[in-house]
Amino acid sequence: MRPREPVLRQVRGGDVSILEAPARAPGAYSAAYIGGGHGPGHLLYSNRAQAPTAPSRSSLLYSRWIRNSFFWLLVIVAVIAIFFAFFANGSDHQSVEFGQVITDAERGRIEKIEVDGRTLTVTYIRQANEETGKVVKAKAGPNTNIEDILTQRGVALSRAPGTAEGVPAVNLEYKDSSGFGPFLGLLLNILPFLLFGLFLLLIMRQAQGSNSQAMSFGKSRARLFTGSKVTVTFADVAGVDEAKEELAEVVEFLKYPEKFAALGARIPKGVLLVGPPGTGKTLLSRAVAGEAGVPFFSISGSEFVEMFVGVGASRVRDLFDQAKKNAPCIVFIDEIDAVGRQRGAGLGGSHDEREQTLNQILVEMDGFDTGTNVIVIAATNRPDILDPALLRPGRFDRKVVLDAPDIKGREAILNVHMKGKPIADDVDVAVLAKATSGFSGADLANLVNEAAILAARRNKKIITMKEFLEAIDRVILGPERKSKVMSDLEKKVTAYHEGGHVIVAHFLKHHDPVYKVTIVSRGMSGGHTRFLGEDTSYHTPSMFKDRMASALGGLAAEEIVFGEASTGPSSDIQQVTRIARSMVTRWGMSKKLGPRTFGKTEELIFLGREISETRDYSEKIAEEIDEEVRELIDEAHATATKILLEHRKLLDKLASVLIEVETLEGEQLVRLLNSDPDEPWPPPDLAEPKPEAAAKPTAEEAPRRPIFEPKPATGLAWESGNQSRTDGG
Length: 729
Prior knowledge:
The chain is an alpha/beta fold and 729 residues long. 43% of the residues lie in helices and 15% in strands. It has 23 helices and 21 strands. The protein has a six-stranded mixed beta sheet. It has a five-stranded mixed beta sheet with strand order 5-8-7-6-9, covered by helices on one side. It has a four-stranded mixed beta sheet with strand order 20-16-17-21. Helix 15 crosses helix 17 (553-562) and helix 15 crosses helix 20 (648-661). The chain is elongated.
């Protein structure tokens, strides 16, 4: 019975990312990961009855809120103090001397004096030309007793209403103090010190943050995944059954180690996934993360590379330290060729930063500390440049090659990507698998997505075979160039050119069957012919000769019909020349030169690019190679010309039909090739649906076309003259 997978939930807030695990049975594992910004993550791991020690999200947010609140409180207090200091006592009343106030009181000109500390607000008796009495301000000296001064001057401290001017009497009133005066004064005195302390606090916090960033610069930036977070499983991976079996065994080792330990087997140290781009290396590693149920660290090889010396090695140490604390676990390094390149190629010798990082990886994977249950899975498409010490057993015990899927694998991949989509009953996955020879898993996923987009563009509710076939052309050659206007001569030349490919290939014994021919422009191609071939790892000289004859069928057709060839067959000639030279120099298929190779070619294994070629033969042999290549091409050209001359009427019939309908494929194309050239086309059983095909589409069904004629901008390539057409055949 499969053990219960850990159910984890992720909480995010600010720079905190916490993985919290619920209560588990005894012996279960739980993990908490805390990381901030671009800095390192600290892993707190516990097993059995021990609970995670990560602080709660509420406590972290509360402490941060306290720090920020203290800062803003100081700012608010400072602003209030400044406001009161400069504006609290501000007034538009006139200020007079204290002695003037006493003199005016003796003369009986003052009605009321209001005392507020040392501040006197004096109200004079209203004059005849005034609405209210004049109000002035005065300032008394410290420890001044205004009552004694007024009494000594003979001024009464009470003035009855209606008392005439000239009577020495005033209403003396005292204003209650607000109680903030002493505190406000104290605050104003210590305000400069508070501001200076706040400034020092900000500087210290900034220095502390910089120090933490500097200390965390050498920490690993690996991301931690769990079984519940990654939704990809082995059920989502198809076409690589052998690789799945190898990695499924690793997952089983992590889940049931006692099964292997009973037989004395040890856990593999590393698994290296190699293969061309798009074959599913990263997807397979994500499936391992979804199936394993153990901590899974993911990091790219480029994340170890920095401009500072020692940072890469420090990050490697920190990564494996975290992994050892969480053992058993899996570490996935994508694009390991970024740091695993063979040593000795750099200018810095053994002190090169990249070599230090590689040395640290070598030690961590298989050094003196060999008792860790950490499995390293790495992916690359450049295994030829990796250091031999990295590839030896004990570091990478298994090397899993993921090549482009065969026809059975492509069918399985298509079924995986079609799952959950509304697929019509006329969709034949086997035919699609045959028509996509050489496609990688990523290409097939893109193919299904393009078909779904085409169906949605046409307002369909299901995806039909028509959308899938058109999606294949879009993936290989690009979208249709509906805006391109072809003259009658161009359309006729293209029809005969593609017809030549079809006729020659149809009557050759060792050639793949023809499936589709079209004169519709796509990408840089003016038309193309597609074949349905079986996947095979072995090719014979007869197969290559038939392929060359078919490729030269367009050239031969143009020469027969128009008397000379155009620039259209340029790509066909390049393809034929490449095949003929490879037959002579690489595959030993020359009877004259014998079974040997000529020259050494350095190329990228899984990227299909030749870097350089070294000649190891004489000039005389070079001339013989050129003669052999010329004989093979002439033989293929003669074969194509002979077939087209024998079936000239069928060529004319096919070209006329292509000019009319532009595209023929499937059973309809096979029937035309097997029909009598003198019989009209289409036959009676296919003539009935013709009016529907030629009927003008309605407004709802009409394809969306631009309402303007595209005009090339000044300086673009096609303004310089006629272009050479390239053909898919």
